[in-house]
Amino acid sequence: MLNKRVKVYISIVIGLGLSFIVYSIINVPTKKIVDIILFAFFAFLAESMPIYTTKEVTVSVAFAIDLMAILIFGPYEGALIAAIGIGFQIGKYMDGRVRHIFNFPYYKTLFNISQIALSVGIGGLIYGYTGGVPGAYIYPNHLLSAILAAMIYYLLNTSIVAVLLSLLTNKSLTYVLTKEIKWMVPNFLFLAFLGIIMSEAFVRIGYVSLILLFIPLFMIRYMFKLYMDSKQSYYDTINVLVKALDAKDKYTAGHSKNVEKIAALLCREFGFSESHTEMVKIAALLHDIGKIGVKEEVLNKPGKLSDEELSIIREHPQKGYEILKEVPALKEVSLWVKYHHEWYNGNGYPDGIKGEEIPLEAQILSLADVFDALVSDRPYRKAFSQEGAYEIIVGNEGTQFSPKIIKAFKKAFEKHREEFKHDI
Fold first, then answer.
1. Which residue ranges does UniProt annotate as crossing the membrane (predicted)?
2. Of 93, 140, 247, 357, which has the fewest CB atoms closer than 10 Å, so is most exposed?
């Protein structure tokens, strides 16, 4: 359910965007209708063939098509081309169903076409105001104007979406811009360059240039699909290992997933990049992988463990390290797993390191691990309440946990208390 602030913001963007679209329709010469339809078709193709950078995040080369539209035809034609392209795009839902304009929430479609029309249109106006002439050779006289138009288009598009994400996720706008959208900058630089080059080519050779654009696009998309498929297989393998461990240790089923969730919140407080956070999340999922080698009668023993059994359990960080270090992509992760039971004062295991010798990522895993263990039932005790677990964690500042990890924990707990609960 959208809150009032989100509804107001979406309504404002839709109002402004639709007004600009109507104004654009009024100002477009009839003779350009065919060009708009043809370019809109290519924009539709680009929007419908995104390149997947993660399982849920895609990058579209439609930016290059939209930029071409304003450099070749002008701001109003460009706004209409971009709006048609994004409005009629075809995609897929996570369950495999085809997504199109007729089964996509109407307010999302209106927001998408409105924000893209505003961004493209204003970028096109800036191109004209700074001396750019639509349809003319860009290099050398209009190159700076073209670069400025691309920047304005990108900044407006990014800002409008970033504000919406900030309102939806309750994250600060600064965080959204620096942590969740910053990765798009290299993509923008490449597509801006591509759009300007293709605009120059279009002025010289016409629609053949668009066909030439889609040949490398198909190749790039295919290569990215192969990469994402291999990456997904990697994550599937990790999840299989986690499920195997959950099946073996009935008392900690779901524990790794909860540690992953809490670790991600702590990473956010430290300002980790998305890729850095992703590696910590993988470490969280695999932090107890060494327990696969521990006998089930020890893991599931209902009473107190003997000294010998406790010694066996304490071998799991080292065993986890031995398992993971053989995987080249998990060398750093293996060290974080090895040290997730070390204490700030040196009383932990397996190596008894202390203070800053313990990697920050291992400290994050340690706190997340302990908190979820405290709020879940164990064979020898009932679960603590969230508040009780919080007090225990904070009470161990300077002994088990470093001051900086406690500071991050306090902030994360205050902001996301609900997400710290134990889910099975």
1. 6-26, 33-53, 59-88, 109-130, 142-169, 181-199, 205-224
2. 140
Residue 298 · residue 313 · CB < 8 Å: yes
Rounded Cα distance, 231 and 239, in Å: 13
Of 385, 388, 410, 387, whose CA–CA distance to 397 is shortest? 410
Which residues, at least 6 apart from 229, have a Cβ–Cβ distance to it below 8 Å? Answer: none
* Region of residue 294 (left: phi > 0; alpha: psi -120 to 50; beta: else): beta
Question: Residue 307 and residue 187: Cα distance in Å, rounded?
Answer: 56
Beta bridge partners of 397: 401
Residue pair 317/350 in contact by the 8 Å Cβ criterion: yes
pLDDT at 180: 58
The 3-state DSSP class for residue 357 equals helix
Judged against a pLDDT cut of 60, whether residue 424 lies above it is answered with: no
pLDDT in tens, 89-104: 987 765 667 888 888 8
pLDDT at 234: 76
CB 355 within 8 A of CB 331: no
Structure tokens at 240: 């299989």
The two structure tokens encoding residue 18: 């639709």
119 close to 157: Cβ distance less than 8 angstroms: yes
Options 2.60.120, 1.10.8, 1.10.1760, 3.30.56; CATH for 4-228 is 1.10.1760
Write down the domain spans for the chain. Answer: 4-228, 249-420
Residues forming beta bridges with residue 381, ordered by sequence position: 378
Judge contact between 144 and 71, C-beta under 8 A: no
- Which CATH number describes the domain made up of 249-420? 1.10.3210.10
Q: For residue 50, which phi and psi values (nearest 5 degrees)?
A: -70, 160
Find the largest Cα–Cα distance for the chain.
Answer: 87
Integer-rounded Cα radius of gyration of the chain? 27
Percent of the chain topping pLDDT 90? 51
What is the arithmetic mean of pLDDT over 64-88?
95
What count of other Cβ atoms lies within 10 Å of the Cβ of residue 133?
A: 14
Structure tokens at 254: 């779901």
What type of residue is 139?
Y
